[in-house]
Amino acid sequence: MTRLKTSIPNEQDWTLLDALTEAAIKNHVQIFVLLYEEIPQALANNSKRAQEMLEAISTEHVHVLRHRSRFDRNVYWSHHEKIVVIDQTVAFVGGIDIALMRYDDHSHRLQDGAKGDQGLWKWNDYQNIRYVDFHDVQNNQKDVVHRACVPRQPWRDIACQLWGAAATDVGRHFVERWSHARRLKGGAQFYDVFPALELQAPDRQIIPLKETRKDGGSLSRSIGAASAKVVLEELKNQTPPSMALTPLKLSCVQVLRSVSRWSAGTRHESSIHSAYCNRIEHAEKFVYVENQFFASATVEGDATMGNRIASALLSRILRAVREKEIFRVVVVMPLFPGFAGEVENESGNSGPLLTVMHWQYRTICRGKKSMVEQIKAALQEMDGIGGTRQWSDFLCFYGLRTWTTMHQRSSSDSNNSRSSRIVTENVYVHSKALIVDDLACIIGSANINDRSMLGNRDSEMCVIMEDETKCFGKSMREASMKEFFGNDTDFSNWVDSVVWKDMQARACHNTQIYREVLLPLPDDTITTWAQLKQLRSDRKFDTSKYSPDQMIAPINDQIAVTKMNKIQGIIVQWPLEFLKDETLEGGSLTMGSLAPSIFN
User: Fold this and answer.
1) For the structural domain made of 249-501+581-598, what CATH number should be given?
2) What is the mean pLDDT of the chain?
3) Are 163 and 85 in contact (CB under 8 A)?
4) pTM for this model (two decimals)
5) Where would I find the H helices in 365-496?
């Protein structure tokens, strides 16, 4: 909210706070902001300060409410949706928080050499959540990491802009939640202090998204035309050239929610989970999943995990195994969950990190009920021991990683020479998206875990979009593949066995180079705590100048740079065998008993 002036080409100096200020003061727009009121002991959001900053614009035009659950059972559940609604006719829905360090583009830069008040990421907007967790966020005029030494955490996210009836539905949802929070805030005696909010848009008005120009092209029309033009003009310089920048008229758009009595004062709704499972079960050729988490039940009767998204994926894959058809599932997710600190088992500091790792590995590849092991068993049953089909012919997990050289002058050298250090960091996947056969896409705020999917925990919002021409889904998927794999080859035809193998080969190639030159965690060659502890003790470099996950740190090494330059794109293998010989679930260290209600 506080991005200031920058000299970076093509970057916008305009900030959200600037926009709200002009809208409220100059244009007399009424602004309603609903914030999640965090538990201060658990999160450092400081929503109270955000409320004060917003109300300082104009108490006449800016109205802010903070809300959270008051039930003892679910005190850790949150409002997780991320929406903006304008006049209840234009809406933004996705995974992007209006928060520190979320700003990024497809280049995923690891450094910002300018001073804290001059860089693209101002002051504590330059962050690395693996290096240090958010804290003291109200002091936004100071750096929290040494930006000349520590690489920033790149960010990957997805959101969409809606016009027309779907945007009106997003507005309905906000009105419903605002009214619920208003009723509860401060008791009945304060009810009239907070303004009521009513639906202003025509009920279910359908507004066409585009019209045909005389020259045969298409134009965005209606209420969204002006805003669409601004957004699309800016995107021309910001996105990979493969991205489709023309608004598309979709066959069907439906808003989805996870809400319940505590979050919205409504009956329990888990339509996001229902839509995920339904679209996956009816997939014909492929499913693309991009999500911050992947913790889900793989069998019916799982008493610990409630959501059945992994089970739906597995069921569709097993049908393909039995019917001997080609079917692909691609999952892109973070290499590490977003918690700070070293990965270790000797204190409780890694508890949240190891807890999430445990539940994700349990879903993906560890134990007879995991997805990978069930696919292996089905292949052996169908093809016999000598069968040529592999589980990876159906399912692939990928992560994202990038690198750069950071230059720093040596204070001890009389010649004031500069050292060149190779640094790396995983690109943190924060998106929550599903693409099925390029026909249906789901974009929103819901993670693949019980917190997001069950409906009676975190509040969430997604939108499912169906396009019979498959243009929208295909353009979105192609743009992602070019960002991940590089622009030199088309990796979008997953049904083609050559393309499928080439995708895996490129991820393997990149992973091997990282392993040889930098050995960043997590890595499949490290399977025990003893190995990891030895690697840490062998480090001879200043670890405060690197991500905690980097085990090798070449300095002024041109041979190493030459090897790194052979990396293509940012795709790497997801580490299926990291710490496979250890039990990651371990009582108080991993908060195992609390995991179902806090982390899942």
Assistant:
1) 3.30.870.10
2) 84
3) no
4) 0.89
5) 371-383, 450-453, 471-485
